[in-house]
Specification:
Length: 364
């Protein structure tokens, strides 16, 4: 467990990657607890942009974070395109360059003792590399609506995303029934099916298709036909954005210079394959960034507050190269390296899968 050599006096915090409900709850708690410890806090605007570009660092005080608990987004802004190890140059011949030395110099010029990163696996990987290659003291706070970090039981933002997706599925039930339609709802999550599984179960979906298991289109069609024979002339299908049918190439692609590929078309692909097999109109709804926006749920406000306070305590103790985490309802900290290993996926042994199958949900 790494220790900083002197008392922590000044830290920098940034919100990397995509936004997630609860970010402002984290910032509020972190700043308030840091202030209690006598630590100055600076915020890097738009993720790592503030550490790459000049004049993008702002001082955060308890007054700066007053009234932000219920707000979505981040008062600092986010960026998933500002990877300092592969920073966009804007030129085709050499599109990315290493700007990590700028980050190190910016931290040094501001007298920063510890860099606090709020983000998902990509942000934590950058933090781990900065700590290893440039000896930057780093503290991590896990954030992703995908809930796919294996080093923590849950990430803030996930509960709100599931709540939003469930609301959408609930809303689509009535129009699906009124028109005898198949409603396909595409949710986020990239290569992890946690949002699809939880929102599908909570919203009463008939079929849930997960990125972790390529689906058999015939099984999907059979489920819809069986429901029609039993008098249910509509069906709700929830599909994760990374899901794909058996026998087709996976939508997964290798990251390009640290930037994850965009995923799109899961609902449209399913509708195209399904259209020739069932005698129903099919409509698709892609929820997209609706799941990232809006006021965070009470659960995400509380978890974000706990994470922010715990990270500030680590900084006060000079403990770095760690990420705060929740395990068995207790806030703990884990090695930063662990945070970027073993992503959490929905496996066949997941208890929710057994429950869903028991009540008749089809997984393709």
């Amino acid at each position: 467990m790494a220790q900083t050599p002197k008392r922590t006096e000044r830290v920098a915090i940034l919100t990397g990657g995509g936004d997630a409900p609860g970010l402002n709850a984290v910032l509020r708690a972190f700043v308030r607890v840091s202030h209690h410890h006598g630590i100055e806090v600076y915020g890097s605007e738009d993720g790592f942009e503030g550490l790459v570009q000049r004049n993008r660092m702002v001082k955060l005080t308890p007054g700066s974070v007053r009234g932000i608990l219920a707000r979505g987004g981040s008062i600092l802004g986010c960026s998933n395109r500002a990877n300092p190890f592969a920073y966009p140059t804007g030129t085709e011949s050499d599109p990315y360059e290493d700007r990590t030395q700028d980050v190190v110099e910016r931290l040094r010029s501001h007298g920063i003792d510890i860099l606090v990163l709020v983000g998902g696996d990509g942000t934590m990987d950058i933090g781990h590399r900065l700590s290893q290659q440039h000896k930057v003291p780093v503290v991590g706070i896990p954030k992703t609506i995908d809930n796919d970090l294996g080093a923590t039981d849950v990430t803030f933002g996930f509960d709100t995303a599931v709540t939003t997706a469930t609301w959408a599925i609930d809303t689509l039930h009535s129009t699906a029934e009124a028109h005898d339609r198949i409603m396909i709802v595409e949710v986020m999550g990239r290569y992890a099916g946690w949002i699809a599984l939880h929102s599908g179960m909570a919203g009463g979906a008939d079929i849930i298709l997960l990125p972790e298991r390529p689906y058999d289109i015939e099984r999907v069609a059979t489920k819809i036909r069986q429901r029609a024979q039993q008098g249910s002339t509509f069906s709700i299908v929830v599909v994760g954005e990374g899901a794909y049918p058996k026998g087709t190439p996976s939508t997964e692609a290798s990251p390009v210079d640290g930037h994850l590929p965009k995923l799109q078309g899961a609902a449209a692909t399913l509708a195209q394959h399904l259209g020739a097999q069932v005698p129903h109109e099919i409509r698709t709804t892609v929820l997209g960034h609706l799941q990232r926006g809006g006021s965070p749920s009470p659960a995400d406000r509380i978890l974000g507050t706990r994470f922010g306070a715990a990270a500030a305590d680590l900084c006060a103790k000079g403990i770095t190269q760690r990420m705060v985490s929740i395990r068995n309802e207790q806030i703990v900290d884990v090695a930063l390296k662990e945070a970027v290993q073993n992503p959490k996926r929905v496996t066949d042994s997941e208890p929710l899968i057994a429950t869903a199958k028991a009540i008749g949900i089809e997984f393709g």
